[in-house]
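hey so u asked for the seq, here:
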Amino acid sequence: MKHFWRKTAAGLLCLALLLGSAACGGGGGEEADTGSGGNGLLMDFDDDLSGVQGTGSGDEGTQNGGAGGSGGGAGGTVSNSTGGSGGGGAIPGSSSADPFANIPSNLKGTSITFPCWGDEGDSECLKVINAFTKKTGIKVNVTTVNQGEYESTIAQQIAARSGPDVIVCNNTLVASIDNAQPIQKYVNLQDDFWDDTITDICTLGGNTYFVNSLEGVWENVDMVFYNKKLFEDNGLTSPGDYYKKGTWTWENCKKCMEEINGIGQTGGYIDPLIFGASMNACTVAYDTKNHVFSCAPSLSNLVPAFQFPAQCFREGLWNTTAWFGTFGTGTIGIYVSSTYGFKPNGYFKDMDNAAIAMAPLPSSYQGKATKQAGTLRGYGIAKGAKNPNAVAYFLRWFLDYKYYESSGAKIFKNDDLKKVYFEQIVPDIRKNGWVVDLSHSALRIADYDVEGSLRPATRVDAAQVSVELAKQYNTINAAVQKANSRIAKYK
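ran it, structure tokens below
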């Protein structure tokens, strides 16, 4: 019902704008695109430099994303919808048609600037970007910014009126929103191409600031990676085997690790934040209705999520010297990670392409259903962007995997990884929803190292887990209040 009224209101707004434009005769503004595919009116947006902050979040180069969500201090942001909510913007049009068939002539020959820290600017992604330029006539200037200084660097550029057009929010909502302008006047949020979960999270005070799509490869979705060769060569039941039999549980994930240990190798790593998010138990929750971060007293909601990895550690299934960088050596059975793991330039870039395999996150723990989970990644239009209309077309292209295939870009280390992602993980999310974990978005504002600070709780006896977590409560709660204060102006 919520999405019905939002779409109805958006439709009436678009009708009013169209009628107003007709009455004014265009008035020298952007030309309207009346071609097929439902493309609407292109509108200029004032260069709003108000509220620009000179500070940004800390380094987001960690292995895991974060935590968060709606509804109390224990859970993450959960959505069961498939996308398409939000206000009715201008372009591009319906995903069932060609959104690029009728690009306004005044955009051809223009350019946009897209700063990133290397991920989107690697050689394979440049194939997609170059194909976009060939199709649309819009040039994309990709620049490199240090990831740990991304938000503060962009803020400084915007303040100097030399800012970019496209910006990335990589689990840094509180810091990134200061650099963004509302996107709904340029992007048609009614198009079911867009991930409704991300749209809802990034909509505050009636304005949407970042978008993403499950049709692409840039969502921060978590999954289980495993060394297929270790399982096959030793006749062991793999995560993929359990998944096919319908018995892929967190208990069987642990069983896989135990069997790998049994052949003299390292069992694997279950990230407590990812495991917790799959149970909707996150360090910091985010209420998307009231736009408030919170955490449970003494972090008590995290105790079960940390006890399970702690048990794995005590049983020798993981150790203090192994990390995601050593997964590629071929001596580790399992590593729970995110989409960056399946990319040729990602976490496991040095691993044999034929050995790496993956499965969705398990579907239950102790008989209770668990969900697919991940962290926030979104793309938006910078405040003061010189060419925002072109950004809308670019995002519709860059976040759609079919354009990677048509341009010959190799984004997956092997085809099996692509099949698991698009044929198992994404359909599961569309059917059952997923938990988007927003802890880092709140805690990075206070330069709080989530993984490092909470790691001791995974290396103690089960009875001591709650004690270790409680030690962090005051610091985390203070960071949460700081994040709430920072984000309040957007409500």
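The mean pLDDT is 85. Residues 220-374+435-490 form a domain with the D-Maltodextrin-Binding Protein; domain 2 fold (CATH 3.40.190.10).
lmk if thats what u needed
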